[in-house]
Amino acid sequence: MKAAFFAVTGAGIALGLLLPGAKPKAAAPAPVLAAVATADQPRETVLEREDNGHFFTVADVNGEPIKFVVDTGATTVALTMDDARRAGVKFDPGQFEVVGSGASGAVRGQEVELNDVVLDGKRVSGIHGLVLDGLTISLLGQNYLRHLDSVSISGDKMTLK
């Protein structure tokens, strides 16, 4: 169990250390949060801590439900290759390059744009993401979380508003 904890934590730390690539890029429009509360779309999401110490949730990426670990240490939303394929995200493993480094060495992947990431009605459109080689679960990182009003942990509950 400790090995799994350190593996997921290491992946989160690796992503948290990721900086935008050295390649100059055209400025992308800022992601937009559009959260509208209705009876079907709660404004607050409460997650229970799992036995491994992490908080998991399902959010829609481009309309496709994807299981994530909520990783407050990750800079960017990162998808597994399988999740990216299911969400219709175009990527080419032959184009993967080093996008960061972690405890186990270089982290390889490809930068992508996601149309929408939606969790319980909390939508961020036009969001930057990564597809990472060897990632076993997708990571819901700060470039999504920072658009929320609050992210808090109390005991074994994480609340996203």
TrEMBL record:
Domain of life according to the entry: Bacteria
GO MF annotations, alphabetized: aspartic-type endopeptidase activity
EC number: 3.4.23.-
GO biological process, one term: proteolysis
Gene3D superfamilies: Acid Proteases
Entry-linked CDD domains: retropepsin_like_bacteria
Signal sequence extent: none
Keywords for this protein: Hydrolase, Protease
Keyword Phosphoprotein: no
Pfam families, alphabetized: gag-asp_proteas
Domain Peptidase A2 intervals: 66-144
UniProt KW Protease keyword: yes
EC class name: hydrolase
Designated name of the protein: TIGR02281 family clan AA aspartic protease
